[in-house]
What we know:
single chain; 246 residues; alpha+beta; Alpha-Beta Plaits; 9-stranded mixed sheet; 9 strands; globular
Amino acid sequence: MQQRYFLQLSYKGTNYHGWQIQPNAISVQEVMENALTIILRQKIVVVGAGRTDTGVHASFFVLHFDSPDSEIETQKLVHKLNSFLPSDIAVQKIWKVDNELHARFSALYRTYKYFISTKKNPFKTEFAYKYLLPLDISKMNKAAKILFDNKNFTSFSRLHTDVKTNNCKIFIAEWEQENSQLIFTIKADRFLRNMVRAIVGTLLEVGQGKLSVDNFKKIIESKDRGAAGASAPAQGLFLVDIEYPE
């Protein structure tokens, strides 16, 4: 009888080709599977809450794994993993869950934040997009509100992905300014590949005055990735929260 465990971690995505295992490139999933397999002395396969792209960070991420050992000392395992893992991955906690609970499919909501640095800052280069042009934030927020009225986000999805639907329900989408930093927060029931960075890149064109708010609406309705703006760079994007049923 297998016991399912949830594991909460955070990682700096700079040195990884995203979360998901892939040939000829190092991923966070591969590093976690190797660490758990070595420490627990059994072959461990982990399932993540979703995919993050190359260079994207996660201050909050969840994975699950199954083990025939239902009495793993979770606190001790957290300590061993943190001693073993590279400095850019940290484990916060591990706990037992019902075997039906799934790190990816049981998640109700996910929240991302995108950080933009409006001044050159050597301490933000790996964690924010340096963007020095003036932006109309109120216009960007006006455009962001249009996201609530739509559900098909093909215009902001990477092409040729293996998903069955491009429908998502967005609950939060807003910009705020903190000193020389702009932060975009977006919360939805699910996200498409590259979706947040494509939305941010297109909203930046609204903020520059290259696109009107009405044009932004038309881009969503067109269901055409070619109509939207270029994706914002990966280093500004963080997965910050995943919510599960109680």
